[in-house]
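Troubleshooting log. The previous structure file for this entry was overwritten by mistake, so regenerating from the original sequence record. Sequence copied from the archived sheet and checked twice against the printout by T.R.
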Amino acid sequence: MTVKVSMTVNGKPVSDEVEERTLLVTYLRETLHLTGTHVGCDTAQCGACTVELDGRAVKACNLLAMQAEGANVVTIEGIAKADGTLHPMQEAFRQNHGLQCGFCTPGMVISAIDLVKNNPSPTEQQIRSQLDGNFCRCTGYHNIVKAVRAGAEAMRG
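Regenerated output below.
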């Protein structure tokens, strides 16, 4: 059985017929071809699929596409400026070597932005706590925490 879903993704209205069991992450990747949102575990544990849904970070592998009906979704592809200028958090990850293979990075960046929007000056413990649901299998979290701190400072201005 299919259902019609309509939402705004990265500032653009989209509408499609999808199988009612289609996950939001599948819809983003396979229908909209926004492949920056990764599928890492399909069990909402790794955080690679994290997107912003109506202003808060959520794991897109844990939601059906139809649950995002009428919502505003922002993926990693939607946070840079139209001219290609990176979001301050993306730039901070780049400058502070907060990534290695890059697989977990989109989810980390979205989670970090969510943290800073709600807490502009997070402590190291708050950063680590926020990123607890985002796994990086390549590196320790030292540079990621450093990047989030730098990104928070840049977002504050």
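DSSP finds five helices and five strands in the chain. Archived copy saved in two places this time.
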